[in-house]
Target: Amidohydrolase
Amino acid sequence: MAASQKLADTLLAALPCVRDWQEQFYRDLHRNPELSHQEFGTAREVADRLRGFGYEVHDGVGGTGVVGVLPNGPGPAVLLRADMDALPVEEATGLEYASTVRATDADGIEVPVMHACGHDVHVTALLGAAQLLADGREHWRGTVIALFQPAEETSDGARGMVDDGLARLLPKVDVALAQHVLPAPAGRVGVRAGALLSAADSMRITVHGRGAHGSMPQAAVDPVVLAAMIVVRLQTVVAREVAPGESAVLTVGSIHAGSKSNVIPDRAVLQLNIRTYSENARTAVLDAIRRIVTAECQASGSPKDPEFELFDRFPLTRNDDDTTARVSEAFTAFFGDRCRQMPQQTASEDFSEIPAALGAPYTYWGIGGIDPEVYQRAAEHGRVDQDIPVNHSSTFAPVIQPTLDTGTQALVVAATAWLARA
Model:
């Protein structure tokens, strides 16, 4: 580990030069966000910079994905990944570089656009790390792969790159690494072996009734009542069908039925979101939902079977033990007590689709993005949940520094745990 620490220190000595362009690049990217599958400008900027650093660049992978490959002699191939897409959120940060962008989404609806999840931090940090590794290539051997992924927010960006032949563009990958900015004090990094981010499944359920006049309920099978009974019964799934040692979340986020007060409709549509940390729990919860919905439809005399549609599915992010231990050791040596154990997150990611397809172990860590003094004041008053904006909030605004420095450092330090020459 001493060799990798020395290599990281050598490469990161040039960080001030990278910082000169990174901060303005970040402001420009934050000001010009792009929705999932529409990251054309971002991808163009990323590809141009990678070519300037000396990488072999493959663009248009899976639509707007960009992959930079830097071969540098025999040695391990290390893949570093950042996601690029923004969200349909109207920014309310008040920042001088706040987004005012509006765009047309996949449904043809005009929406505001904001980097409300910090993907602009990820892109900027990875570009900085890519330059540092390229400029210092005389100090290491192996291959660096800088992968910029589209459409993480819609859960199909990683799969799109894989299906578009990503593996054919790369040498055998020895390890894959990724990170995410979180509502924690800037300057910190968080690691965790095993299950870190939950699997996520969204489900759309259509239940059928028989419509009638509101004054004649005896002639109807009321899908509103049916939907209400389903919602109540679903609350028992986690409480009574998931083992106490397991974690799961089941949320009914949307119910739609009818259009007028005196008309009993003929159907109701519910939308659910499920988060789990194991395949056993995932299967058990999904099976329980189908069983309960089907039974309630039968109990209500529904004239048709219910319909189930799964969408926006994210895989479980389960960090490899050995890979995580190696990165954790490198982080502890570099960051000291700023490296912490990261709690499990109920957020979800599609990053793991990439190493799974490439047959590579991986680890995924978090970096803080909140002004440490602001976070400390909130913590002292027991108001972190109330006062600290979280990802996907219209007021989520990572401080530029030390967030960018930490993200860039973390990628370089992690990569050098494999690239250092003995």
About this structure: The chain has twelve helices and 18 strands. The chain has a mean pLDDT of 96.
